[in-house]
Design brief:
Enolase-like, domain 1, 3 domains, 5-stranded parallel sheet, 13 helices, globular
């Protein structure tokens, strides 16, 4: 019996993979997607890390914990009084699981709607041959299929501390951090990146004593320095204990919890005893079981698949997108690359602009930015103008009861082109989109300053920050 043949086969059903498969099918290709994620019952759960143990469930927990904190600390100022406030962690986790399930089922529906053939199992290369490449699907039903084009979108895995494996009971990756069955009295977090801050924030709001240990001497080094400074001040005030410049020497995982021995920024030996330890020190490209050597697929020293700026690998008609290749490990970056590759296979000109990919940290306040930071512009020696506007002076933020933070614009000193926008404050994740659009169209700060923004709205802070570039804010 001959193997099933497809024009395009996507290995991996995360944001990069499932989007690539749908776009390829829309363009008329006979398309399949292979994904091995399983739900609690062993059924398919496409959506990758993002949907199952990343972006989606973490936002669900952040929302639940934010409601709890609002009820416990801020409802009273609105005239709402509560007594006997409690948190049912099991119910919170069940809601999170329900949100994940809705997303899993939504992707399966989209595959059906777009006539994408779905294979539940692990995809791997067998050999070059047939119409292009033979691929094995290892799952409940093992089979070999053939593809003219292959798009690898296998994502990434959490990086473990050397010699300290994740047991997902005491030493937790992002996966285990989303499934802690009850609020720990003491929680340790190694790494003050996005995952560390978001998960630390969730459990801190619910009552955990949270200590974050960061190896780097600077906080949020990728963010604008002014934003990072404000964030450190706010998070510390909220109760997160953040230590910078830390060297972790030893981690002991015992029956009663975890002991971390480390050297602090002053060079003094310290010990931290916690019930649970979240390790969030970055992620590594996932090529486990892909069998790249069977076809000579080239990987770099980090284990990432080597691609050019078009996401082409060293093999003809084999492409790779998302966390498994170079560039930021962001779900929306993977999606853009997935669409672009499908369009390139169709002979079109897929577009991904790395200079306008937004970054978001879903803490409270939220942090979002696009483009260059002030320290990057200084390092480049580029002449620029800066303007910022605080949410304290924004009417909608006052009514919302959340006036923390500001919007900051960076523009070219001569042309006024927007070079970067940085936001720390309420709904920063939504507000940043306007600046992404503006930068994609090479807008000037004056363009944003001249556009009518609804009143009262948080977006007025964006307009005012653009006005501030020319030192003519109207409300501050």
């Amino acid at each position: 019996m001959s193997n099933k043949q497809f024009d395009v086969v996507v290995i991996g059903g995360g944001p990069g993979g499932y989007i690539a498969a749908i776009r390829a099918a829309q363009l008329g290709f006979n398309t399949a997607c292979i994904d091995e994620w399983k739900n609690a019952k062993g059924g398919p759960a496409p959506g990758g890390t993002c949907t199952n143990v990343g972006c989606i469930p973490s936002k669900a927990l952040l929302q639940s914990s934010e409601h709890y904190e609002q009820a416990g600390h801020h409802f009273a100022e609105h005239g709402i009084s509560l007594s006997n406030l409690s948190m049912d962690v099991a119910k919170m986790l069940a809601r999170k699981d329900a949100v994940v399930k809705q997303n899993n089922e939504g992707i399966l529906y989209l595959f059906k709607k777009n006539k994408v053939t779905f294979f539940h199992g692990r995809g791997s290369f067998v050999k070059a041959g047939g119409i292009g490449y033979e691929l094995k699907v290892s799952g409940a039903n093992e089979e070999v299929i053939e593809a003219r084009h292959v798009i690898v979108a296998t994502g990434s895995n959490a990086r473990a501390l050397p010699g300290v494996p994740f047991d997902e009971q005491n030493v937790l990756s992002n996966d285990g951090a989303l499934r802690i069955p009850e609020v720990p009295k003491k929680l340790g977090v190694i790494g003050s990146g996005v995952i560390g801050l978001e998960m630390g924030s969730v459990w801190r709001r619910l009552g955990a004593d949270v200590t974050i240990l960061e190896a780097l001497p600077t906080f949020l080094g990728a963010a604008d320095e002014q934003v990072a400074k404000e964030a450190l001040k706010v998070f510390t005030k909220q109760g997160l204990k953040i230590q910078l410049g830390v060297k972790v020497n030893e981690v002991k995982n015992g029956a009663k919890g975890v002991t971390v021995s480390y050297t602090d920024a002053k060079g003094e030996a310290q010990t931290l005893e916690v019930d649970k330890l979240i390790v969030s020190i970055g992620r590594v490209p996932n090529t486990n079981g892909l069998n790249p050597e069977a076809v000579g697929l080239k990987l770099d020293e980090r284990g990432a698949i080597v691609v050019d700026d078009q996401c082409r690998t060293n093999l003809p008609n084999v492409w790779a997108v998302g966390d498994v290749v170079r560039g930021p490990m962001l779900a929306h970056k993977a999606e853009e690359e997935g669409v672009a590759v499908a369009e390139r296979i169709a002979g079109q000109h897929g577009h991904v602009n790395f200079d306008t990919i937004p970054w978001v940290i879903y803490t409270s306040p939220e942090i979002a930015w696009v483009g260059k930071t002030e320290q990057q512009l200084k390092a480049e020696g580029r002449a620029y103008k800066a303007g910022s506007f605080p949410f304290m002076a924004n009417g909608r933020a006052r009514a919302l009861g959340d006036t923390t933070g500001f919007v900051k614009f960076l523009a070219d000193a001569k042309t006024d082109e927007i070079l970067g926008v940085h936001i720390i404050g309420p709904y920063a994740s939504e507000l940043i989109a306007e600046s992404v659009v503006a930068m994609e169209f090479k807008a000037s700060a004056e363009d944003i300053a001249r556009i009518c923004h609804a009143h009262p709205s948080l977006s007025e802070a964006t307009k005012e920050a653009a006005l501030a570039v020319d030192k003519r804010t109207l409300n501050f």
